[in-house]
Amino acid sequence: MSNAIAVAGVGMHPWGKWGRPFVEYGVHAARAALADAGIAWSDVDFVVGGETVRNGYAGYVAGSTFASALGWNGARIATSYAACATGAQALDTARARILAGLCDVALVVGADTTPKGFLAPNAGERWTDPDWLRFKLLGMTNPAYFALYARRRMDLYGATSEDFAQVKVKNARHGLENPNARYRKEVAVADVLGSAIVSDPLHLLDICATSDGAAAVVLTSLDYARAHGLADPVRVEAVSTVTPTFPNAVIDMPLLATDHFAAGTPERTFKESIADAAYEEAGIGPEDVDVAEVYDLSTALELDWIEDLGLCKRGEAEVLLRAGDTTIGGRIPVNPSGGLACFGEAVPAQALAQVCELTWQLRGQAVGRQVEGATVGITANQGLFGHGSSVLLAR
Questions:
Q1: Interacting residues of 128 by C-beta distance below 8 A, sequence separation 6+
Q2: In terms of C-beta density within 10 A (0-12 exposed, 13-18 middle, 19 or more buried), how is residue 18 classed?
Q3: Of 62, 168, 246, 313, which has the fewest CB atoms closer than 10 Å, so is most exposed?
Q4: Distance in Å from the first CA to the final CA of the chain
Q5: pTM tops 0.85, yes or no
Q6: From the centroid of its chain, how far is CA 202?
Q7: Low-confidence ranges of the chain (pLDDT < 70)
C-alpha cells in the first residue's frame, strides 16, 4: 500500500526581522498556499498548526490560532511541536488523517517571530529539562555544540575552515534569486573567515541567524487531486520522525548520556536513521535523489547531513563540495533555496519551508535556482529532545 499523498499547494511569507505577530506571517503563507492549490479555504477540513513556544503563551495553541485568523470554517484542528522538526511532524499529522480517509484537504502552517540573540529556554529552574540543563550546567548555547561537530569533522576527515566557508559561499549564491530569503548577498571565503569567531572554529557567517517567517503546505489525497484537475502533483512519499537509539557513540545535544536500559548497538547513528526510515518507507534510495534541502544551522553541519542522507560516504562531503557537486548544476545540489544560511531559523516553519522549496524544484518553478530535471527530493531537519525529521518528495 502506498503512503503517498499530493502536495496541492505551497506558500511562504518572506523571512526577515519584521517585528510583527507570527499569526500575520502564517495567514499570509496559508493564503498563498491555498491560492497555489486553487482550493478555497471553505474546502479545507483539517488544519495543523506548528507551535512556537516563545514570546508568552505557547503560540496561542497554533492550530486554532490559524483557523481563527483565517475565519472559522468548521475544520478539525491539531497542533504539533517538535522543536526544529515541528513542521515535519505537523505534516505527518495531516498525512496520517488523509491516509486514514478521515479528510480530503489539510492545511499545515508554521510561523514564528523570534527574539534577538540565541534561542534559549524560558526562565526558571527545571532540573529534568535537558534544554535547560545544557544552558545552565554546560553553558551550551547552540553555536557551542555546532563548533564541537565542526571540530569533529576537522579531526576525523581533514575538513578545514575554508571548506566550511565554501558552504556559506555556495548557499549565499543559491539564495540570491530566492524572493523569500532574508539574506540575498553574495559572499566570499575571505568574508566568512574575516567575520568574528563565535565558537572556534566557527565564524559569525558560518552560523545561521534567527528570523521571523512562515511556510504553509496544502495536502490532499491523490484521488482528490485527480478529481480536481491536478493530474501529476508532487507527492509526499514518506515522512520520517524517528527517535535516537541508545547506546549512541555520537552525542546529539542536549542529550547528556549515551546509554539506556534498552541495550544493543544500533546499526546507524540517529541522523543516519532519520533518512533511512524515509528511504525504506518510500522504496527510494539515496542514489535516486536529485536535490536535498538540509538543516544547515552551521556550515559544518551541512557537510554532516550530506553523509547522513547517504548522498556520499563518510568523510567524502568535502570532496563533493570542492568539486562543485553540491551546487546547482552539480551531481547532487544541496540547499538550492539558500538554506538557513540565507533564511535563518523560524522554528515551526523551517521544515515546511524545505517542503515548499522542493515542491517548486520538482515542479520546475524555482526561478533563478532551478535544479534541472529534478524528480526526487529529500529534506533533513533535527529537533532537540530526539526529534528527527525527513520528508521525501517525488514527481
A1: none
A2: middle
A3: 313
A4: 18
A5: yes
A6: 21
A7: 1, 54-59, 249, 251-266
